Amino acid sequence: MDGTSTGFFVNQEAFGHLPEAKLTRTARDVFDILFSRQVIGQAGKVSIKQEELAKALRIGQPKVSKAEAELRAKGIVRNRSRGRIEVHPLFGVFENQAEMKSAALQALEEGWDLRFHEPADGGQDDGPDGDGGQPLAVVYPMPVLRKAS
Q1: For the whole prediction, is pTM greater than 0.85?
Q2: Across the 149 residues of the chain, what is the mean pLDDT of every consecutive 10-residue run?
Q3: Alpha carbons 9 and 60: distance in angstroms, whole number
Q4: Which residues, 6 or more positions from 27, have their beta carbon under 8 angstroms from its beta carbon?
């Protein structure tokens, strides 16, 4: 390191809502690795194979596959291609606030919603807020964005 700070932006408010997703331990572990593997400027895209995740977590690949399916069902990630997964912009790592806001708005336009109150298996769940499993409102109003150091 040359002693200079390489700060980045994350959405702390979004992470405060992550417990509402009621993720299994394995899904949360997979998410944590995906989050840590994000590269600034890659808009949440992570290149990692299930075999790598399984090895890092010391679990079988079928458990990784099931955890990824759970994350997809909740809207936290989506697959782009084999070995490449994309983390929802609200849980992304960005170089600046404008980049984060742009990515979040694009996700909203694409209909990429967080579905924290829907069971991962697709069944009906009223959720803790009694809204009948409606997607979690994202972006509006924009959460407070803070620079992480």
Answers
A1: no
A2: 58 87 95 91 86 95 95 90 87 88 90 78 47 46 52
A3: 33
A4: 67, 68, 70, 71, 120
